[in-house]
Design brief:
76 residues, mainly alpha
Length: 76
């Protein structure tokens, strides 16, 4: 979630792993979220019409990497 760090999900990931569910957590640190401030200079932010891209491209890339890793783990 917004502002969270990968380690915030460690307990959930451990619980899932104990139940046999492989888990991969996207690599995100709290300072990474400061990148979202780039949207503040876009007038669309203030109008409530800002689109997720390109402001969240960094996050979407991290999610894509985590999904790729999960696929590799699942499919060998």
């Amino acid at each position: 979630g917004l502002g969270n760090n990968s380690s915030d999900y460690q307990q959930l990931a451990s619980s899932l792993e104990e139940k046999g569910v492989r888990t991969v957590v996207a690599k995100v640190s709290r300072p990474d979220w400061l990148r979202n401030a780039a949207g503040l200079v876009d007038g669309n932010y203030w109008k409530g019409t800002l689109r997720p891209r390109p402001v969240l491209d960094w996050y979407l890339k991290r999610i894509e990497e985590a999904v790729s890793t999960a696929n590799l783990l699942a499919n060998g």
